């Protein structure tokens, strides 16, 4: 197979597993990095899973700069746009998240269209398809979240607006487009950097917080998510479609119970008691970490990944496997 796939943000948690999935299927992979000095670390991190990495190369490109993208796209048949900046050092407000995410996405898409790429698959977020929490509606691919809904923090607002801008930009373009909308992404880590939602598992194993808030997540395994990206990249029926990627819903206290039961002595610090929701609501306005979570306390909102299962054969593994594989990899990494 001589087709080359560009994966943006090669140091990321999801991006590394996308690289693994692509190499295992025989593709040539080019990953973008802001700093090429990190190339060897990325290569070393995936080698234990893939074996040979001779079909992996790197290109220097920054989501916030134009230069480098034409060269990165040269000769690529497909693009997996996985990267998304988490804000800028200069601000913590909404624009600090939204502007880099939206502008970076449009920069990647413009370069892909100019290069004649066959299809781009973009990583969005399940939150981008979430209706108002009190609406009783199910999150599915027909929904478009309201970025002004107070349930969303700045990061999720950036994902909503970046995906909207992407679909608008790609209208009428010869390059095909699809988006994948993951829930909370857990699973084994290949590196200790850019962990994203895996920090939830890392904190629980370390005994943080001491009491667990009544928060829940629709969980997806990073390996299943990476495979879904590759399927969405090649399946003819995926062009022009959105796909929610999620397995089962888990309360944080259920995840903690799974860790305690499955880790043995390594799970001794995992918290056992729930933090009263009334207390969390009282403290939330005073805490930058708790404030964005307040609207989701005690809520299990409805979501379906039926479309991804039906159209692309998405079959997520059990949440317990995902959570324990994630924790074991974090523990093993800390011991090395």
Question: How is this structure best described in words?
Answer:
The chain is α/β, with parallel strands linked by helices. It has one domain: NAD(P)-binding Rossmann-like Domain (Rossmann fold). Helices cover 39% and strands 15% of the residues. The chain has helices at residues 13-24, 39-50, 69-73, 94-115, 154-170, 199-205, 222-234, 252-263, 277-283, 306-312, 319-335, and strands at 4-7, 28-33, 56-60, 78-81, 119-123, 176-182, 184-186, 211-212, 216-221, 242-245, 249-251, 273-274. α2 (39-50) links the parallel β2 and β3. The longest helix is centred in the N-terminal third of the chain and has 22 residues, at 94-115. It starts with a strand and ends with a helix.
By CATH, the architecture is named 3-Layer(aba) Sandwich
The proportion of residues in beta strands is 15-25%
Total of DSSP H or I helical runs spanning 4+ residues:
11
**Low-confidence runs:** none
**What order do the helices and strands follow?**
EHEHEHEHEHEEHEEHEEHEHHH
Lateral strand order in the biggest sheet: 3-2-1-4-5-6-10
Count of discrete structural domains: 1
Structural class: alpha/beta
End-to-end Cα distance, whole Å, is 36 Å
Helix content: 25-40%
The profile of the biggest β sheet is:
7 strands, parallel
Number of strands: 12
CATH fold group:
Rossmann fold
Shape: globular
Rg computed from alpha carbons, rounded to a whole number of angstroms: 19 Å
CATH H level: which superfamily?
NAD(P)-binding Rossmann-like Domain
**Average pLDDT over all residues:** 93
CATH class: Alpha Beta
